[in-house]
Amino acid sequence: MEALKVLALLVVALLSPVTSSIVYQDETSDATLSPGDDEVHVRQYPSPVTVNSRHDQPPLIVNDSLITDFMEVNPLEVDGMELFEGDIMLTKEQWRMLKEERKFQNYGSELYKWQPGPSGFPLVPYRFESSVAAGSAAANAIAAGIAHWESNTCLQFEQTTNTAQPHLRFIVGSGCWSYIGRLFQNFPNGQQVSIGRGCETMGIVAHEIGHAIGFNHEQSRSDRDDYVVIHFDNIRSSASGNFNQRNTIDVVTYDYESIMHYSTKAFSFNGFPTISTIDSSKNHLIGNRDALTFNDILLANLMYGCITSWEDACGMSSDSCEGEGYIGASCSCVCPPDTTGSNCETPIPPPAVAEDGCTQTITTETTFTSPSTNGLSCTVDIQAPECHTPVITFTQFRLYQKVTCENNQACCYYDSLELREDYPNTASTMYCSTDLAGQTITAGSQRVVLFYFKRWSSALLEADITFAQVPGCEPATPTTTTSTSTTSTSTTSTSTTTTSTSTSTTEPPTPPKCTIEVHNGVFYWISPLFDENYPNGRTCRVSGYSNTAAFHLKSIVFDLDTTDCQDYVLLTTLFGKTQKYCGDISKINFKSPSFNFILDFVTNDMDNSMGFNISLAPRITPNQDCHEVITLEAGQEYTLDSPFFGQGKQKKKAYCEWRLVAPEGSTIQVKQLISRIKPSSDCNKDFLLLNGNMEKLYPSETSLQYCSVFNTMDIMTTETNMLYVAYQKKRAKTKGFRLKAMVV
Ligand SMILES: *[C@@H]1O[C@H](CO)[C@@H](O)[C@H](O)[C@H]1NC(C)=O
Ligand SMILES: *[C@@H]1O[C@H](CO)[C@@H](O)[C@H](O)[C@H]1NC(C)=O
Fold it and tell me: Does the pLDDT value for residue 94 go beyond 70?
């Protein structure tokens, strides 16, 4: 690891820096590029720290019955036994089987099934322990949950007083949990199912009974990766094992709506989702605790041989029901929700708008208003036309305020809005409170998925959605624009693609461009015709703008013609520092305290090579306290210390940026600066930068740069109400700085 870094520094040092010839521009197109050249803006969303740092924000008044996710009431330990997947208790034998990775299935294991009673159908005896008071919420919910299973399957439940037999012992314990399957060896005198506080609903009871009859969680299935993405980073550490995948035999298709599926934020420690469905329109479906679904019922009926029993009882030798339909207790077909008819022969088309009235795909400019339904989890998939990016202006943004989550982090728990470009992979910044009120967000990609979670009845969201043209971008396939999209939706998709050949013959083909890919929140900038040979006489540019993140640039593949460095990539970062890369190098590895940069790719008219694939990773870690917006009040004095200031030698590196924000109309005076920064030529190793003009790239003309040891008074006063401070520390001998500022 260390060796790699040293090598990386060496390579960078060997490459000759060129002097600055780039015009600084912020979020506008660049006149120094010739027409037809590519320019792509990679833009980070403003962080919640930035938009939520005003102290004058009116506090939201809390008066709401906030729904508690039933997962939250589950303790992780019950009577000294570990809870498996949150609400499942395992016996020692089951633990052992899991550890030995023997098959632990939700289908076909006779051992764990309830046995037939006198009627020939499986019988589940049960009783209430004394903690379940007659007529209590728990007792009523248990009765409803049992009735729900009985009316949909051939399982029969019988209240019993005979404790000398395997049976379910319902208790009001801590949380909602159950063992999986019938455990007659471990519990010959009954096994417990806890319906604790907050668990007293029919759906949760149906879920726990699901475990008791042998069901695992839906997202533990072997095939779950085809349907969902698990965000392990957001799962509280003690619960990460709950998302383990298991070796299951899956006899029915994966069911997002299964009563056994976790919800999007189950076991989240920070309010961020822990599960995303790969198909964005299914996100709002997971976590159902209302009722059993067709597939839940089908699985139980298959497991317990209900269907063959019913066929026999109905005197039918075969099943006349189409698709997944089957003969039910009433001797007629039970059809999947998307079919009807006596033999399930008639398909039911899916509804045009999702039942929640919110989940939708937006492809034309429109205004989005959130429905007032509570307990909403919906997905708005915004897809701009080619060469356009969504621009979202929040005219209303009033969500529940941040709460303190685990690790004392402030998080958007009850209500949240998340904007994701690389859906469904990374879960990124979460907004709530009035974070985005009046804000406009310009996406850096063609598609943005809004993920809205609402549990507070007064929450309100309204946004104007428009599409902005990406400068210099021309669609690869000419389309017949949006005029066809008014009437029939089924025919438009074919009509747009067929016209491309006739129009492209008259116009010269578009020159190949640099492209941007996003995988897991990392941007990849890729040269034109990468892997073949890049074209001659081309330039393209990518620029990044952000309020908070640092970034890390790395070459995945880098192979440019070496002749006098005529073909090159030029990186421009803070204070006009540039770095020129050419040749065949695999070890570009560059870090900056701020995500703001410009990258230019320039080729001459001769010789070419394979090109490059460079990664640009924003570096934001939740606990990183050195990217911060600090709001100051009128007259306030503030001391800003770098990490490790006054602590002697510290090997740890730091890439930090702070924004001091004074009230509108005032300025910030830097009264004293104590610098303990080890000098380097051109301050290219460790440095401190100050800018008082709100210039994200800290241009050398208007910024101050320090890399030496001193103590000076009255350094500067800002032109605006903000002071930008960037700091980079790579070496142990740099011991930081202390800056004393005052609002004037
Ligand atoms: C809070 O809401 C409840 C039920 O909606 C209502 O009865 C109560 O008066 C409200 N309290 C306040 C302080 O507004
Ligand atoms: C660029 O590199 C990343 C990371 O290795 C990879 O996922 C991506 O597919 C590459 N892109 C191209 C066009 O090769």
Answer: no
Ligand 2 neighbours, Cβ below 6 Å, are 517, 519, 524, 526, 530, 556, 613
Residue 459's pLDDT is what?
Answer: 85
C-alpha to C-alpha distance for 273 and 427, rounded to whole angstroms: 7
Task: Give the span between the Cα atoms of 394 and 634, in whole angstroms.
Answer: 29
Q: Using an 8 Å Cβ cutoff, are 614 and 522 in contact?
A: no
| Cβ burial, residue 113 (10 Å; 0-12/13-18/19+) | middle
Contact 374, 454 (CB under 8 A): yes
- Residues placed in the known binding site for Zn(2+): 207, 211, 217
Question: Which of the ligands is closest to the CA of residue 65?
Answer: 1
Q: Is the pLDDT of residue 411 over 50?
A: yes
User: Which residue has a Cα nearest atom 7 of ligand 2?
Assistant: 519
Task: Please name which of 245, 101, 77 lies closest in space to residue 175, comparing C-alpha atoms.
Answer: 77
Nearest partner of 45 among 613, 447, 545, judged by Cα: 545
Distance, CA of 136 to CA of 203 (rounded, Å): 16
Binding site, residues? 207, 211, 217
Q: What span, in angstroms and rounded, lies between the C-alpha atoms of 157 and 36?
A: 73
pLDDT at 117 over 60: yes
Paired residues of 118 in beta bridges: none
The answer to whether 101 is a known catalytic residue is: no
CA 17 vs CA 394, 592, 603: distances in Å? 43, 16, 17
| Per-residue pLDDT tens over the stretch 480-523 | 333 333 333 333 333 322 223 333 333 444 556 777 776 665 67
Residues linked to residue 192 through DSSP beta bridges, in sequence order: 169
Confidence (pLDDT) at 111: 67
Determine the Cα angle at 674 with ends 670 and 678, to 5°.
125
**Mean pLDDT over all residues of the chain?**
77
Structure tokens, 244 = 């383990």
Cα-based distances in Å from 533 to 87, 560, 570, 608 = 56, 10, 19, 6
Contact assessment for residue 89 and residue 179, using Cβ atoms and an 8 Å cutoff = yes
Closest CA to 482 of 362, 401, 357: 362
The rounded Å distance from CA 328 to ligand 2 centre is 52
The CA distance from 576 to 456, in Å, is 47
Question: For residues 12 and 591, what is the distance between their CA atoms, to the nearest angstrom?
Answer: 12
Q: Is 631 buried (19+), middle (13-18) or exposed (0-12) by CB count in 10 A?
A: middle
Compute the CA torsion angle 205, 208, 212, 215 (nearest 10 deg). Answer: 120
β-strand pairing of 191-195 with 176-179:
antiparallel
Give the helix/strand (H/E) hosting 141.
helix 137-152
Express each pLDDT in 145-168 by its tens digit: 999 999 999 999 999 999 999 999
Please tell me which of 266-270, 563-567, 605-609, 653-657 the model is most confident about, judged by mean pLDDT.
653-657
Q: Sheet holding 191-195: strands in order across?
A: 77-78, 81-84, 88-89, 176-179, 191-195, 168-171, 123-128, 156-159
Tokens 């792509």 label which residue? Answer: 40
Angle, CA of 227, 224 and 216, to the nearest 5°: 130
CA distances in angstroms from 33 to 242, 511, 601, 617, listed in the order given: 53, 15, 11, 25
In eight-state DSSP terms, residue 576 is G
Atom from ligand 2 closest to the CA of residue 531: 14
Selecting among 85, 208, 218, 628, the annotated active-site residue is: 208
